[in-house]
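Please fill in the sequence for the structure shown.

STRUCTURE ENCODING:
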C-alpha cells in the first residue's frame, strides 16, 4: 500500500504535454517550487509555424477575413518572402497607444530552417483574397 501511494505521489510530480514537441525553455530551477498556473516549461512544435501580428488597426482590419492571403518578410532574413493564409482574427480589439488594434494569426505556406521563435516579421494581408 505504501509503495502504491508513493507511486501515485511520484506520478503527480510529472509534467505532461498536450502535444509532441521540443522543450524550448525551462522556466524553473532545481529545488524551486512551481506554483499552480505558473509557466514551467516552454514546449514548441517546430513542424509548423504560426505568425501572429497585433498591429492591424480598426481601419485595416475591416476587409480582412480568415482565408485571405498574406505575405511575410523577416527582419533577420533579408530576401526571405513567404506567402501564407489568415487563420483567425481576434474578435476583440485592444487599445494600443490610442489605436484599436486586432490580433491576426497567419499560417505560412512553407517554413525555413533559419526561422526562430520571436523573430520580427512584417505581415502584409491582402484583404478579400480568400480562395473560398
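FILLED IN BY: designer on duty
SEQUENCE:
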Amino acid at each position: 500500500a505504501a509503495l502504491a501511494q508513493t507511486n501515485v505521489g511520484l506520478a503527480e510530480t510529472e509534467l505532461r504535454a498536450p502535444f509532441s514537441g521540443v522543450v524550448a525553455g525551462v522556466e524553473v530551477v532545481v529545488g524551486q517550487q512551481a506554483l499552480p498556473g505558473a509557466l514551467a516549461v516552454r514546449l514548441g512544435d517546430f513542424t509548423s509555424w504560426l505568425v501572429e501580428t497585433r498591429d492591424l488597426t480598426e481601419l485595416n482590419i475591416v476587409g480582412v477575413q480568415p482565408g485571405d492571403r498574406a505575405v511575410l518578410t523577416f527582419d533577420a532574413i533579408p530576401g526571405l518572402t513567404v506567402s501564407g493564409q489568415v487563420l483567425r482574427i481576434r474578435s476583440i480589439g485592444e487599445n494600443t497607444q490610442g489605436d484599436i488594434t486586432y490580433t491576426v494569426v497567419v499560417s505560412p505556406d512553407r517554413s525555413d530552417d533559419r526561422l526562430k521563435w520571436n523573430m520580427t516579421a512584417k505581415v502584409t494581408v491582402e484583404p478579400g483574397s480568400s480562395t473560398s
